[in-house]
Sequence to fold (284 residues):
Amino acid sequence: MITIHSIEEIRLYVEQAKQRGETIGFVPTMGFLHEGHGSLIDHARGDHQQVIVSIFVNPLQFGPNEDFDRYPRDLPKDQAFCEARGVDVIFAPSAKVMYGEEGALTRIHVDALGDHLCGASRPGHFDGVATVVAKLFNIVQPHRAYFGKKDFQQLSIVKRLVKDLSIPVEIIGVDIVREADGLAKSSRNAYLTPEDRTVAPELQQTLKRIQAKVAEGASDLDQLMEAERSRLASFERIRIDYLTCVDLLQLQPIHKLDVGEEGVCAIAAFVGNTRLIDNILLTR
Fold:
């Protein structure tokens, strides 16, 4: 395994691999890798001769009061993780390499999908995501790219970005990887205090209760949401950002599900000072 820091070098590597008839699987990350990332890498490894993982903490997707400076970083640990998973190349550019001395003047905005849910409390976040993903796709030019379904809004935006801009890469969504108690794997879990960690699984338990009630025939989603918001409010270490149900295509709020319909129930909440997200598929 090698680590590449320059755009020119990674482009040359990919060009030579394609000349040999090899396909490229790409896993974009911000590093501090965990088993959720490992699942993405494993899927890419099973599909391709070459697996490239990018490690880049993208400043464009952090707001002025967010955790860019303290976002966990450990490149040597990530390199060992990738090597053990059979990654061929880590692409680890600096912000200067990605955006130049003057920074990025261009932003990509995906209408409708990014202004609510996480976009409501993190304005500009998904513009930063769309911009860096488009740039990485242009640099690496993979055949397929792998994203986790935990960030389902991000996954939807990336799929629409690729469709609208005719970017020749197939987007693969990979199921959420969880801890034994159900907490979704996340780099931000490292922020949780021991007290936070004991209550953090309540987010998934909330989603599972809603899923079970819908499967049993409940159709009034607003009523289910309100009951679960009230329950979560009893935990002093949990502060809800949103708990809502949306459709699978436009990610717009839905208030009921008829038989045979599907939706996504999504939650974002602060557990202590750490903002976590999770979601679950609803089927009636």
Observations:
- The beta strands are 2-4, 24-29, 50-55, 89-91, 144-148, 170-174, 238-246, 262-271, 274-283.
- The chain has ten helices and nine strands.
- The domain at 2-174 is CATH 3.40.50.620 (Rossmann fold).
